[in-house]
Fold this sequence. Notes:
This protein is α/β, with parallel strands linked by helices. The protein has seven helices and ten strands. The protein has helices at 56-64, 103-108, 128-140, 156-169, 186-201, 213-219, 242-250; strands spanning 16-27, 30-41, 45-49, 71-76, 79-80, 88-91, 174-178, 205-209, 222-227, 230-236. The strands form two sheets. Strands 6-7-8-3-9-10 form a six-stranded mixed beta sheet, with helices on both faces. The chain has a four-stranded antiparallel beta sheet with strand order 2-1-4-5, with helices on one face.
Amino acid sequence: MTLMATPEIRTPVGAVALRIRGLRKTFGTKQVLKGVDLDLHAGEFVTLLGANGSGKSTALKSIVGLQTADEGLIEVDGAPATADPTKTAMVFQQIHLVKRRSVLDNVCAGALGRLPMWQSLHPWLFPAALRQEAMHCLDRVGLADRASEPAGKLSGGQQQRVAIARALCQRAKVVLADEPVSALDPNASEQVLALLAELATEGLGVLAVLHQPELAMKYSSRLIGLNKGVVEFDLPTPEVDMSMVDALYSGDQK
């Protein structure tokens, strides 16, 4: 499979996949999120931009349940996010694969939440239908030919694509990507972001945190700027200029 170099950025046409209203989070005396509102549609690749400490990663962790928000509504596919955690998948900066296990086994792990307990105990017990689905997900990210190899033998960019395949096997409606390319070389970064953007055009809702504004502007259909826990702008990418982005990192807006 050849990954697209730069996907076409489209206006979203799908339903709201993720809805956030009034999201607030405080650590000690520091209020990190101050009433964030956000909609992510199926078919959108949206990027959160902002300086360190602006609340980007805290927002993602609150959505997926790794942290508990103090206040706020989080809905995925029209229902509370807690109703079905499998509808939201997370792709991390540090790639969490079991490196001694095969690539295929790692992708199958995305489906553990819907398997009977006994079938989730060991990869040998994964049903044939799941392995076939996982192979399809690997083909989708261009790595079907590496299915039997230990995940640890793959490059960083390939491992991140395996993590994305695992999210596809989870059948998630929303994929959250927290700095997914910060540890990758430029070519691998482009491949991973092109893949996420292409998957979005096929109906996923993708919400990413990036520290590379130029890549965000290249691949995202919409950009959201966070400054000290407040949304400064939420605009289609063509309506955002670099002066607005620079202000997020310089603190000019506060």
